[in-house]
Specification:
single chain, mainly alpha
Length: 75
């Protein structure tokens, strides 16, 4: 589909930076960023991975305590 949209200057700068980094066309970059954004909204925000750190869902305290006691493996 071909369409015309007006982008704010800061959005254009983000797309241009991503485009240069990935070596893509403007169109490819916009499509990729929209797909990534949509996927993250379905799956939840992407959390940064820190070396040597395990991300754990702490919504169930008893599960976290069991993990700390090595009773169950992390999921």
């Amino acid at each position: 589909m071909r369409t015309t949209i007006s982008l704010d200057d800061d959005v254009t700068a983000i797309i241009e930076a991503e485009r240069r980094k990935a070596g893509e066309t403007f169109r490819e970059t916009v499509n990729r960023l929209i797909r990534v954004s949509q996927q993250q909204s379905v799956e939840g925000p992407e959390l940064p991975l820190l070396p040597g750190r395990l991300l754990v869902d702490v919504s169930d305290v008893s599960e976290v305590l069991a993990m700390l006691d090595d009773e169950i493996p992390p999921q």
